[in-house]
Amino acid sequence: MRHSLINRNRKPPVPTRLAVRRSGALMVELVVGAVLLGIFLSSVGPMFRWIRDARLISDRHLFANQELATQMEQLAALPPSQITDERLKSLSITESTGAMIPDARLTAVKQPTEDGLQRVTLAITWVNDSGMDVEPKRLTAWFPPASEGEAE
User: Fold this and answer.
1) Distances (CA, A) of 128 to 45, 46, 57
2) Whole-number CA gyration radius for the chain
3) Is residue 125 within 8 Å of 60, Cβ to Cβ?
4) What's the whole-number average pLDDT of the chain?
5) Cα 26 to the chain's mean position, in Å?
6) Cβ count within 10 A of residue 70
7) SS3 sequence, the chain?
8) Which residues pair with 133 in a beta bridge?
9) What is d(CA 50, CA 100) in angstroms, rounded to the nearest whole number?
10) What is the pLDDT of residues 49-98, one digit of tens each?
């Protein structure tokens, strides 16, 4: 059997002091890695909960804005003479918004302005998960005055 020159000059590795000292180092690295992984995983749960809560709050505000826009569009489609206090008091939250925003309340106020227009303000408020009232979302529109010759 022939040996190459490379194999002939090669000597077996000699154990060094460093190799002897590192016995069990892999176990320490595994323990440190497991601790770091545990810390990471324990912080991920609350982080996802905070993200979910922030998204729910954002969705509720979006639904409230859409509800206000829808209600105001329905009022704008009416003749100005039909925008009465009674009609404004009869406005209510739609079922889809009521499902998304529990305890939502819609209020509507009509005020005359100095230049003869009708100022209508719609507001939605609700109770958040902490039991506190959320600052109302408001939408205001100005309608022309009801003319006397207009049929109701």
Assistant:
1) 22, 19, 8
2) 36
3) no
4) 86
5) 44
6) 13
7) CCCCHHHHHCCCCCCCHHHHHCCCHHHHHHHHHHHHHHHHHHHHHHHHHHHHHHHHHHHHHHHHHHHHHHHHHHHHCCCHHHCCHHHHHCCCCCHHHHHHCCCCEEEEEEEECCCCCEEEEEEEECECCCCCECCCEEEEEEECCCCCCCCC
8) 127
9) 18
10) 999 999 999 999 999 999 999 999 999 999 988 999 999 999 999 999 99
Could you tell me which residue, 31 or 23, shows the higher pLDDT?
31
Instruction: Report residue 147 as tokens.
Output: 């003319």
Within a 10 A sphere around the Cβ of 90, how many other Cβ atoms?
9
Q: Round to whole Å and give the CA distance between 108 and 122.
A: 4
CA distances from 32 to 21, 35, 102, 135 (A): 19, 5, 47, 47
Q: Rounded to an integer, what distance in angstroms lies between the CA atom of residue 124 and that of residue 106?
A: 5
pLDDT for position 26: 84
Encode burial over 91-123: b for 16+ CB neighbours within 10 A, e otherwise: eebeeebbebbeebebebeeeeeeeeebebbbb
